[in-house]
Amino acid sequence: MYYFQTKTKKSKKILNKQFAVMKKTIKPTDTRIKEEKRTIIKKKINENKTVTVRQVAQTSSALFFQFNTQLGPPYHILVDTNFISFSIKYKMDVVQNMMDCLYAKCIPYVTDCIVGELEKLGQKYKIALKIVKDPRFQRIQCMHPGTYADDCLVQRVTQHKCYIVATCDRDLKRRIRKIPGVPIMYIAQRRYTIERMPDAYGAPKK
């Protein structure tokens, strides 16, 4: 008798579990629900559906066509610190090699923070500082505090799509690739080459 009672208790528990699993809810459109309750259910459903707003950054109007229409001769090229140092290492004239790459007049630009970086590096970068102060190089004033050039270049290129960035820094190139319509000039096979620019006839092809 005792064994039978325990068995029935266990079987009741199993049945209750199965009932909990198989329990169904009535749809709000069901005819059995009163209209007052139906409106309450609908309100709860609408409250649960939260609308997620996505903010997409506005792209420049210059990127309406296949590539950036603001780019054209004479080309305005923002030069990085390590680009100048690699040019010195391979004994390359900056302005002449830029023109050989793009087959057009090129105006190299340096910001105040890049000049500040070279001044901080001391005598080792004395030649680089001399190249930067060449009259062919244009100087851009920086309004931000500090001398970290990468953030300055990225911010400037994001705001104005008329520049080409000359750099050999991998991290900076990765950051600039995220900005649409900005070509990158770098050194490959002891020559200046450019990516994301279809009209660069003088650039060596990969």
TrEMBL record:
Family: Belongs to the UTP23/FCF1 family. FCF1 subfamily.
UniProt keyword Ion transport present: no
UniProt signal peptide: none
GO cellular component, one term: small-subunit processome
Top-rank lineage group of the source organism: Eukaryota
Species whose genome carries this gene: Aphis gossypii (Cotton aphid)
PIN domain: residues covered: 75-174
Subcellular location: Nucleus, Nucleolus
Record CDD domains: PIN_Fcf1-like
Annotated Gene3D superfamilies: 5'-nuclease
Annotated keywords: Nucleus, Ribosome biogenesis, rRNA processing
Full protein name: rRNA-processing protein FCF1 homolog
SMART domains: PINc (SM00670)
Listed InterPro entries: Fcf1/UTP23 (IPR006984), Fcf1_PIN (IPR037503), PIN-like_dom_sf (IPR029060), PIN_dom (IPR002716)
Pfam families to which the protein is assigned, alphabetical: Fcf1 (PF04900)
Any GO BP: rRNA processing
